[in-house]
Fold 3-dehydroquinate dehydratase.
Amino acid sequence: MTRRVLVLNGPNLGRLGSREPDVYGRQDLSELRTRLAEVAAADVEIDLRQTDDEAELIGWLHAAVDAGEPVILNPAAFTHYSYALRDACALITKAGLALVEVHISNPAARETFRHTSVVSAVATGTIAGFGFDSYVLALRGSDWPTRPS
């Protein structure tokens, strides 16, 4: 039986590879998709998505609750102010599903406004500052099987 892990990405992450490469690196989402597929166990499907639309992201979280699917989430700029997103994330964990908040950079080492996450308090865990390895660590550190290292 194949299990699906949603890997959801918020605003501006569709510009990875060209947006502030000194902060976010030169790899894009297709390279992230390939990397996660290489790490995931054979029976785990990675469903990687990105949107700049807060309502669409919230809809995906609602669908994850309904489908019983765990989520790896990079909320991007929504991290700092979207209480609507925070409430949708709380639905995931209240349903007993894992929700791992990830960040490519380390928000705590950046501008002051990035230091606060409204998502962290309802997430299963948070991993930040390791580039694309933040996603890999989220996948490996969860209840989802991965290939041996």
